[in-house]
Amino acid sequence: MSTTRIDGKAVSQKIKDQVKKRVDRLKQEGIVPGLAVVLIGENSASHTYVKNKKKTCEALGMRSDLHQFPDTLTEHELLSTIDELNNDPAIHGILVQLPLPAHIDEFKVILAIDPSKDVDGFHPVSIGNMMIGKEAFLPCTPHGIIKLLEHYGIDPKGKHAVVIGRSNIVGKPVGQLLLQKDATVTYCHSKTEDMESITKQADILIAAIGKAKFIDRSYVKPGAVVIDVGMNRDEDGKLCGDVDFADVEGTASYMTPVPGGVGPMTIAMLMENTVQSAEYGLTKDK
Ligand SMILES: Nc1nc2c(c(=O)[nH]1)N[C@@H](CN(C=O)c1ccc(C(=O)N[C@@H](CCC(=O)O)C(=O)O)cc1)CN2
């Protein structure tokens, strides 16, 4: 079977082009969408992602403020920073880059962000609204996956979607979004027994495990759509996903590569959420 490689770079560029038009319109009304990014510690991958977020904001004409701290920052100091950003009218979106140093409680931090500025879509209010299908900032990676499927005309309706992974950021929400698209959703995780027998039933397989090249073709039904959310380093230090691309290619109908698949969509959807937040401010004031 020939496998179509899903081009996340191209799709994310289209979304960013649309966001740019919305930014230009807002600027004509005197509003510059502003994103505040809070980065703590020296995690080099986090530094790369934050740099890319800032670069993308600038390319789209948005304001981007970086609040960078050493990992000696206390939880109290971080919560004070968030409080200031919550009250800054020039800031429409607040994002705290994860993971956080171990001494800071991630849940407390997410809870401190004003839900109207929660462009990561991680706040329980955002997640709750998403779960019941109400308007909400959707978490960027899961939303990006849905956009990729849409772009390639892959309709989850009636399909069996299997999500491997149950993180709050990706696994759980992507399953919910697929459910809203009328898929039948199964979650697999580290305690799942005989995972292969379940993943082999998947029409849409989402791999968000965090283990380099874990999924080979023995886990994949011929013709399945395989979405790889993994961001790992292989034995040679090269970036790779949770799926062994070379092995699964030829079995799947569609596949996302790593890099160039889901990753670029995460940043595009963050830009979309930020512009949406700024637009909401505009309609609220009118
Ligand atoms: N506050 C948040 N923290 C984290 C999130 C998030 O959405 N919000 N997600 C991840 C990291 N992440 C964004 O923050 C992210 C990861 C990967 C990519 C990406 O574009 N990857 C590229 C490859 C990049 C490289 O060469 O290293 C790709 O897949 O093509 C963007 C954003 C955890 N933390």
Automatic annotation (TrEMBL):
Belongs to the tetrahydrofolate dehydrogenase/cyclohydrolase family. NCBIfam families: PRK10792.1, PRK14186.1, PRK14189.1. This is Bifunctional protein FolD. Residues 6-120 form the Tetrahydrofolate dehydrogenase/cyclohydrolase catalytic domain. The gene is folD. Residues 139-279 form the Tetrahydrofolate dehydrogenase/cyclohydrolase NAD(P)-binding domain. Keywords: Amino-acid biosynthesis, Histidine biosynthesis, Hydrolase, Methionine biosynthesis, Multifunctional enzyme, NADP, One-carbon metabolism, Oxidoreductase, Purine biosynthesis. Gene3D superfamilies: Leucine Dehydrogenase, chain A, domain 1, NAD(P)-binding Rossmann-like Domain. NADP(+) binds at G165, R166, S167. GO terms for cellular component: cytosol. Homodimer. The lineage of its organism: Bacteria, Bacillati, Bacillota, Bacilli, Bacillales. GO terms for molecular function: methenyltetrahydrofolate cyclohydrolase activity; methylenetetrahydrofolate dehydrogenase (NADP+) activity. Its EC number is 1.5.1.5, 3.5.4.9. Pfam families: THF_DHG_CYH, THF_DHG_CYH_C. GO terms for biological process: L-histidine biosynthetic process; methionine biosynthetic process; purine nucleotide biosynthetic process; tetrahydrofolate interconversion.
